[in-house]
Amino acid sequence: MNSRAFAEIEPISRQQVEETPPDAAVALFVDDVSKCFVRKSLISRKTLQTTHALQNVSLTVGRNEIFGILGGNGSGKSTLIRVMSTLLIPDSGRVKVFGYDIRADESAVKRLINRVSVEASFFKKLSAMENLLYSSRLYGRSGASLRRDIVNILGSMGIEPERINQPLEQLSRGMQQKVAIARAFLTSPVLLLLDEPTTGLDPRSKRDVQDFVRQLRDQHDATILLCSHDMDEAERLCDRIAVLDQGKVVAIDSAQGLKDRVSAELGGVEVTLEDVFIHLTGRALGEDDAEAEVA
């Protein structure tokens, strides 16, 4: 991977960070957040199903930290990401991004974050170049240097130059996901929310993306929140990990701290992060929760 190409991308605006409130050392503050989804009959309006997607979730992410959220399908990961990115309003609790409240200061929060989800959203008839030019201009980036950065970063992720100007609908899902990740990197967000960003990527592409995440944190002072069900990815990247199960945080620590805790509870046997997850949640990571997320 060409790390120089990434390093040339325009860095985060120092003014943008300096203008944040005094508690800017805390990138993300989640306090007692709950979110419930209710499905009702279209005719009688009778409640048919109630899903507690998030239940009293609290966590704090420090500036420049890579923080992981580990959970199975239906655990509440994507709901939590949507709340943090202002796409969902929590039923109760508070969320602050660098001191800005996601409800009272929604516009300020949106300027500080970017989000990459497992399902990339694009104008599929347009090329990767056209999509990235459009999205970057929304964040105030333009000019000849932007085209150069787009070519460099996509090339570093293994997308050939001749593919850059092809309609996205002609690219594989894995390539589309790389373009989505490039879109987030080009805007140099202060807080990057990654929801299963490497799902569907081949091992080499997955490693390239993981290296990019580290470079974004180390070279651009970004804070990364990574939702994943990939144990190796979480252990390789994250400074700390929260284990989320049925909408509840059941543990927060470094990967090694979690393993040490579970090892002690099991009598000192050597454990993996997958063993930790099974011990804390009672299920393997590939098993879905009883009710999938509605959001």
Number of helices: 12
Overall outline? globular
What is the element string, with H for helices and E for strands? HHEEEHEEHEHHHHEHEHEEHH
CATH class: Alpha Beta
Low-confidence stretches: 1-18, 290-295
Please tally the β strands and state the result. Answer: 10
**Mean pLDDT reading:** 82
As laid out across the biggest beta sheet, the strand order is 6-7-8-3-9-10
**Structural class determined from secondary elements:** alpha/beta
Helix percentage: 25-40%
What does this structure look like?
- The chain is an alpha/beta fold and 295 residues long.
- It has a single domain, classed as P-loop containing nucleotide triphosphate hydrolases (Rossmann fold, 3-Layer(aba) Sandwich).
- Helix content is 38%, strand content 24%.
- The chain has helices at 3-7, 14-18, 77-84, 106-112, 128-138, 144-156, 161-164, 173-186, 203-220, 231-237, 255-265, 273-281; strands at residues 26-40, 47-62, 66-70, 92-97, 100-101, 113-116, 191-195, 223-228, 240-245, 248-253.
- A six-stranded mixed sheet has the order 6-7-8-3-9-10, with helices on both faces. Strands 2-1-4-5 form a four-stranded antiparallel sheet, with helices on one face.
- β4 (92-97) and β5 form a beta hairpin.
- α11 (255-265) packs across α12.
- The longest helix is centred in the C-terminal third of the chain and has 18 residues, at 203-220.
- The protein is globular and about 55 Å long.
- Residues 1-18 and 290-295 have low confidence and may be disordered.
